[in-house]
Amino acid sequence: MIRGILTVAWKDFRVLVTSPMFLTVSGLCACIWSYNYLPQIFQFEKVAQRAFQSGGLNIHQTLFASHIARANIILIFAIPALTMRLLAEEKKMRTYDLLLTVPITAAQIAIGKFLAGFAAGLVLLSLSLIYPLGTFFISNFSLGPLFTSYLGMALVTGIYVAIGLFASSVTESVVLAVILALILNLSLWFLGQAAEMSDQATLTAVMEHISVPQQFVSFLKGTLRISSLTFFVSTLAFFVFLSERVVESSRWR
Q1: Residues of 58-72 as b/e, b for ≥16 C-beta within 10 angstroms?
Q2: Looking at residue 210, what DSSP letter applies?
Q3: Which tens digit of pLDDT belongs to each residue from 139-171?
Q4: Helices in 142-225 by DSSP H: which ranges?
Q5: Least CB-packed of 21, 50, 153, 173 within 10 Å?
Q6: What is the 3-state secondary structure (H, E, C) of 212-243?
Q7: How far is CA 224 from CA 25, 58, 153, 157, in A?
Q8: Cα–Cα distance, 168 to 200 (Å, whole number)
Q9: Do 166 and 239 contact (CB within 8 A), yes or no?
Q10: In whole angstroms, what is the distance from residue 69 CA to residue 139 CA?
Q11: C-alpha–C-alpha distance, residues 137 and 127, integer Å
Q12: What is the pLDDT of residue 196?
């Protein structure tokens, strides 16, 4: 079971991270983060000097939170561009039928491809982590909130990958796979606003529970909640399960 998963994961991971698409996306992400983050450091230094007498500024809330927010926006769009290759492109290239003849289960295919996409997503996320970690050499601050925030971002990236894998499994069009994954990714972040517009207490509570921003805020504050960890893991597991069902159904067509 594990060997089959790792074989699929390693094969797809190598294909993903050596593809021109991944290198292009990585380069664009690095350019955008560098363009935005470096001027913000100098701006933060000026503001911090003026605010020193009144107790100083929280670098995590002032600088890192906005950087993480920009990283999240980029990942919402970048991850679907990577995950479209996982199954939709295999269908387009007519290698999907060959994959189904290999003596491995649909669960091994779905989990293996998820792990490949997740590892590639973590590589992108690690690029964004370089900037706040680099700041540590010129400024003293607690690393705890930064690491919990990036743990939360790693789980959010896992959800984007699981959604992208599911979108890629239901179509052989890479364009449709990207569009569907984008719609689902954005829906996760707008559910919180829908909860604020509802006047029904039960519906509001449900919408807040399945809202990614509501669950992510605890990570941003430097705390770990079991309920939030459970939400992220169960959500990504749900979409991987849906992908496994689609792959399994393909064997019977």
Answers
A1: ebbeebbbebbebbb
A2: T
A3: 777 888 889 999 999 999 999 999 999 999 898
A4: 144-169, 174-197, 201-209, 212-220
A5: 50
A6: HHHHHHHHHCCCCCHHHHHHHHHHHHHHHHHH
A7: 31, 20, 13, 17
A8: 35
A9: yes
A10: 21
A11: 17
A12: 66
